[in-house]
Write a structure and sequence with these properties.
Elements lengths: L3 H8 L3 H8 L7 H14 L11 E7 L8 H14 L4 E6 L1 H4 L6 H7 L2 E7 L5 H10 L3 E4 L10 E5 L1 H13 L5 E6 L4 H16 L9 E4 L3 H12 L7 E4 L2 H14 L8 E6 L12 E4 L2 H16 L10 E5 L1 E3 L12 E3 L5 E3 L2
Parallel strand pairs: 1-2, 1-3, 3-4, 4-5, 5-11, 6-7, 6-8, 8-9, 9-10
Antiparallel strand pairs: 10-12, 13-14
Helix pairs in contact: 1-2, 1-3, 4-12, 8-9, 10-11
Length: 349
């Protein structure tokens, strides 16, 4: 275990200065603070608190928490499996609530006794991942990719499979294909949107913003979305739904409205686990193993913080997704069906 004395020696300062840095004391200048934190991160130093004998890794959202999502549930299942194979335990942190304004992220994590952190991020909070990586604190982002060389990540690449999914709908004869996306923007949904746009462009079809729907990633929002879509003047004949909970809400609402899947509406969903087998009809889906993403992220971080070699190549792991064709896709109906809010069915001629 690295001692505070070692950090002080490597940084060329006193033990008292290291202590002041780690406790966010205002009397320490920025240059010294940066130098001490860099050496502490390089050495993997964690301050001793009481009689701590357990080593901790953390899981933290850089934006809104989403533990209610199937994706995060599967991530945690994989993290739990990897944790059982290491000597590390997991702590869930909330930096937005608990980090002091005067602290760096390294100081915050060290104060909490954390040796490394798994990050879940959004498009609007990616800068937090950049900042943590620049400080040198051991971290790995799960579910998002980064171009910056210092940011480590484990990522499920759904762009090519999303393209393939829309190509499948096009091959069946659909031309009015809608896509649903989460209100919270991230690189996952950006990739799925790009795959959708690419497939349409390759088929000579211009993307229609009116067929792109953003909703919260919850079942009730899927149900409300379908009612809104089908009551419009020219509804799509197929939907690519990029959130697992939303697709379940859509399918259940279709049954309630008497809309026959796939004869009247084709659906391709996104499945992070095995939900495609629990939907009737069985769901055609872009599939990813979110539990594997969680497992790989925790295992890679545990290996990194336990290694004396802090100069090893960064972890930048991309795991492919795949398309499974089941029973929710078919050629478009001859006469697309509208269903008004009062339940009235209107057929186009």
């Amino acid at each position: 275990m690295v001692s505070i004395r070692t950090v002080a020696k490597e940084a060329g300062v006193s033990i008292a200065t290291v202590s002041r840095v780690l406790n966010s004391h205002a009397s320490v200048g920025q240059e010294v603070r940066t130098r001490v934190l860099a050496q502490a991160n390089r050495l993997g130093y964690v301050p001793a608190v009481g009689k701590r004998t357990t080593a901790y890794l953390a899981f933290a959202f850089t934006g809104p928490a989403s533990f209610s999502s199937p994706y995060d549930a599967m991530l945690m299942a994989g993290i739990s499996e990897a944790m059982d194979e290491t000597d590390y335990d997991l702590v869930v942190l909330n930096p937005q609530r608990d980090k002091k304004p005067t602290e760096t992220f390294s100081q915050f994590f060290m104060r909490k006794g954390i040796r490394g952190v798994i990050l879940r991020t959004t498009a609007g909070t990616r800068s937090v991942c950049h900042a943590i990586a620049e400080e040198g604190f051991p971290s790995i982002v799960v579910g998002s990719r980064f171009e910056q060389p210092g940011v480590q990540y484990v990522y499920g690449d759904s762009l090519p499979t999303s393209n393939q999914a829309v190509e499948h709908l096009l091959s069946l004869g659909h031309t009015r294909i809608g896509i649903t996306l989460s209100l919270v923007e991230d690189s996952d949904h950006a990739d799925r949107l790009e795959g959708y746009r690419q497939a349409l462009a390759e088929a000579g079809i211009e993307s229609d913003p009116a067929l792109m729907y953003r909703v919260p990633a919850q079942k009730p929002d899927g149900a409300q979305l379908l009612k809104r879509i089908l009551s419009g003047p020219l509804p799509p004949t197929a939907l690519f739904i990029t959130d697992p909970a939303v697709v379940i809400g859509v399918v259940n609402q279709a049954h309630r409205m008497g809309v026959v899947i796939p004869d009247e509406l084709s659906i391709i969903g996104l499945d992070d686990g095995n939900d495609r087998y629990d939907v009737y009809p069985q769901l055609t889906a872009v599939c990813q193993d979110a539990s594997q993403l969680g497992y790989e992220a925790f295992a890679a971080l545990a290996q990194q913080v336990g290694s004396v070699d802090r100069d090893r190549a960064p972890v930048r792991l991309t795991i492919p997704t795949w398309l499974e064709v089941h029973d929710t896709t078919a050629p478009p109906p001859d006469c697309p069906v509208r269903v008004l809010p009062d339940g009235t069915r209107v057929q186009h001629q």
